[in-house]
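Weekly modeling sync, notes
Attendees: S.R. (lead), two postdocs, one rotation student

Agenda item 3: backlog of single-chain predictions. S.R. asked that every request posted to the team notebook include the full sequence so nobody has to chase files. The rotation student volunteered to paste the first one in as an example of the format we agreed on. Action items at the bottom.

Example entry:
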Amino acid sequence: MNVNDISKGDRVRSLPVDLASHRGFGRVFQPGKLTLGLIAPLEGYPDSVAPTLDNHVEMVRKADEIGIAALWLRDVPFYDPGFGDVGQIIDPMVYSGFLAAHTRKIAIGSAGIVLPLRDPLIVAKQSTSVDQLLGGRFILGLSGGDRAEEFPAFGVSFDDRAERYRDAYAMIRAAVGNAFPTWQSEFYGELRGTLDLIPKPVGPGFPAVAIGRSGQTLDWLAANMDAWIWHGADARHMADILPKWRQATADKPFKPYGYGTWFDLAEDPDLPIQPGRILKGGRHALTALWREQEEAGVNHVVLNMKQTRRPVTEILDELAEFILPQFPTHTMEISS
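Predicted structure, as returned to the notebook:
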């Protein structure tokens, strides 16, 4: 079975109706197409654990205006010297609500909420609230957590985080998708049919995306999540897992696949892609790579510009002029 055969067959399938019409999810994910997203903050800080957040609103507005499909916000509650990176510093749910007032079209996603560390009903409440503020542009991305030092601070076992992830996710689905639900959680609380979560999502669907594996099998992710965003050491090989993903999703509606990567757009447009953990190259080589990956079935690429020394505004301008027209965001004709 080869990747091209799988991707061509996959194009026959489509998103479920509720997700195809979802303002955020439909903007980012469509069969047979690749879009580009960014991880906040939109600045380079290769020599620091923390960004300055200077001009962060201006940069997000610019990303919105040039047609970036999605902005993804990380969930990093503490500075852990063992990891040396604190994401955008600000809590992703708080920041999503703030950005609702400063953006018009771009999807806002969490990448991802560390689900074993959070009460699932609070996550559900925050998510539907943010979705209302964004007019249906929110995508809930969920991760299992990989910073072991954080778990004792929350009084949670690191060893059973995969089980907690599944349990919490089931409770979110029960609370968001039903009126006055009944549900018994193993690790969290109980819904007895006497309470109804408010607000509800804006649209008919409420997409949830797996960020990483979170200790789950591909079969479980395929059966339960609406999309999967993976990460790896070398972006050039991030389509290699697609045959396994397509096999896991073969009997289901279209389940998008994407990946995240460190990124640095070289000033030399003809620079070949450099080997290593940072996806660095000129626009010609990057366009060729993403064309190949689009054909293979990659639907979304999330770019993290922490490692760049080039002004991010220049990178956004070059993306807008030369690359985004070849990988356009899907237009969703839905009013705010």
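Discussion: group reviewed the output briefly. The radius of gyration is 19 Å.
Action items: rotation student to repeat for the remaining queue; S.R. to check formatting next week.
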